[in-house]
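Friendly challenge for the regulars: who can give me the structure tokens for this chain first? No prize, just bragging rights.
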Amino acid sequence: METQKHQIIIVGGGAAGLELATALGRKLGNKGLADVILIDASRTHIWKPLLHEVAAGTLDSAEDELEYLAQARWSHFRYRLGRMVGLDRERREVCIAATYNDEGNEIIPERRFRYDTLVIAVGSLSNDFGIPGVKEHCLFLDTTAQAERFQKKLLDCMLKAHTQAKPIIEGQLDLAIVGAGATGVELAAQLHHVTRQLSAYGLDSIDPDKHMQLHVIEAGPRILPALPTRLSLAAENELRRLGVTVHTNKRVVEVTAAGIVTAEGDVIPAAIKVWAAGIKAPDFLKDIAGLETNRINQLVVRRNLQTTRDENIFAIGDCAACPLDDKGNNVPPRAQAAHQQASILARSIRRRLKGQLPLDYTYRDYGSLVALGRYSTVGNLMGGLVGSMMISGYIARFVYLSLYKMHQAALYGWPRAILITLLHILRRGIDPQIKLH
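First reply, four minutes later:
Bragging rights claimed.
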């Protein structure tokens, strides 16, 4: 009688989940040692740190996204479309909701997938902290669809202002970004460039310096709290030089159709409002099947990335609360952590099939980098040889781009990643600098 293959289910095709599925497919699936299945609610993947560029229109998602079905074929794993909604630990089954098309017709029924090893890598979502009006009046940048919605709304607003018979009224094109982490700051810098490009492409009745005001709102004392103070201040000075109004120590208590309301009672007017403050894991994870979760729905895991109450279930990426040290701190939700965890867990699962214990994960901080559009890049590099080194300008920009190339190399291999880079450079000479539809 043929022995059934070890079933590895990976839920979530973000940076962590897709890299893990690719690595296990090539090492185990290709040799028939295990069945590797990736489940995701989307049909395509794009690196999440690029979503602010999709939102600004400086990146066309159709040119940069990866199709899961094709990646599964190339890397010897299976892909299944669907959204996880439940978990049966006794039967070792993942519950997947029915999938509907745009017309509301069911195309895939509810299903269950059996697992021997389950990896949950569903990422994170923006956390509105229950603040009134955020869900109703703010745009989010958690998915490609949301980023594309923002880009379309920005373009529609500018087209309307350009063609309307009456003069542009004050505040009609103002935009506010709540949250001055990397996403908020990078988006603000990109939008400064994009709005001027749109004017140059023919929307010349709009003067961005006169008709548009960009606001970045931060509850803490400074923007980019993950960076050293000197670099945070340098980035703030750069934003101010670009004409972006930076509000620090401003806690948002309400969002209305007219603008952002702060704890001091001030109202920051904005026609378009973006929420980029704080994260949480998806709500369906909260205490799912009795697993331990924290206050932002993250699955609590040990250093070996196993959940604390089930050795057959692992969690990686933003949805995992992984210990960083003995002081109660957790690994920060960064792309570099997702990449590292996918790499170590791929080795651990191969060991698991041999009856060996999984490896412990130690976070290695290689620094933080923030790209201010085409204007500047700031950040700090960290390593055992050089300690901590602050960088900016072209060197920082090169390192920033290399992080994405590492992700592409994990998915495609270095030869193809380099070819994709060369093709992208060639296309820059014939494509518009921004997406215009």
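Residues 12 and 194 are 32 Å apart (CA to CA). Confidence is low (pLDDT under 50) at residues 383-388. Your move, everyone else.
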